């Protein structure tokens, strides 16, 4: 990807060094109250920003600190813009990585480490842009607010949810830009980058499979909950959910520029997956996730001893819903998958959020498009659905129009890029860091 833009080398170096520091702080979020330790990254960001902008920190629990930086606008009636980041990361298994996942090494023009693309890269770029804006005395018409939130990788109880419930006026803006977009969909000098307008809904459930306890030395005729649970997992995995063609999927297909026959096949519920499988890259995976309610068993636990037949096994399930789908539809699909096993399985709902969506046509979209094309000529923005979830959904629920975007080069293929999220060998090239930092600064000045 080429860019006709002058990049300040010292600023790029500072962004790289900040990203390395954030990675090395190991703010690993396992979902436990005592995990995360985002205070480390919040303090690094506070030191980096210094006195260039007004900053505040908010502690939702010991060690669970978020940072908010603000550049006050000159017109209280002007629309405000939020740059929303998070400072926590998911765990990483060293054995799966080619390099230390928390080393923050700069190798062959790329920074390696957990969080390099999810999303400490954007956290560093947004902070670098805010510092530059503040240091130059920039005064926008509307407020510019940078939020570096804790706890995005779990349930946001100690991050975005806490901030919006307790300090809403300090963090809520009219428009929000965050992670989930700007991902390379094609390679070459005229790239297509995703513009995330919606997040799939989240339904986390726990299935309890019942059997009857007994001695493992006498298994004949036993009602073994573990054996039954294995069949439950198999049925969930093989269950086929009917596809749904949403407006966001239609926008993605149109934006990708497929020929008419392929586009028609991708917009037909009867053929979407078969046509997607014929395309290069990860179109099939995207097509499935963007057109289906997904139900994925992820964890199982049960039993009390190696010589005891278990009477109960728990299976944790991650389900993701499309716009308009309800809890009832999730439960119905699970019941259909279980078949005659349904009476022996109970469902506990652990966490639930419906799909959130923002309109495509807004002033911020037009500004982002113009600024991006000035930085990387010929770039096209393609409406996209985030198949996971981000903090954008909480801000949408409070009235903000939230989108995912950045500028990412084609330093790896789109398929390899997608595989790095919560996967091994996560890394981001320095060029992407430079382009995204320039994006946030120019966007603030233009918007």
Description:
By secondary structure, the chain is an alpha+beta fold. It folds into 2 domains: 9-197 and 356-446, Zn peptidases (Aminopeptidase); 201-353, Alpha-Beta Plaits, CATH 3.30.70.360. It contains 15 helices and 18 strands. Helix 1 packs across helix 3, helix 3 packs across helix 15 (430-446) and helix 12 crosses helix 15. Residues 1-8 have low confidence and may be disordered.
What's this, in brief?
This protein has 447 residues and is of the alpha+beta class. The protein has helices at 9-24, 39-49, 120-135, 160-166, 168-171, 225-238, 247-256, 260-266, 272-277, 283-291, 327-338, 363-375, 392-397, 414-419, 430-446, and strands at residues 54-61, 64-71, 81-86, 106-107, 110-112, 144-149, 175-178, 192-199, 201-210, 214-215, 294-302, 308-309, 312-321, 345-353, 356-357, 380-386, 401-404, 427-429. It has a six-stranded mixed sheet, with helices on both faces.
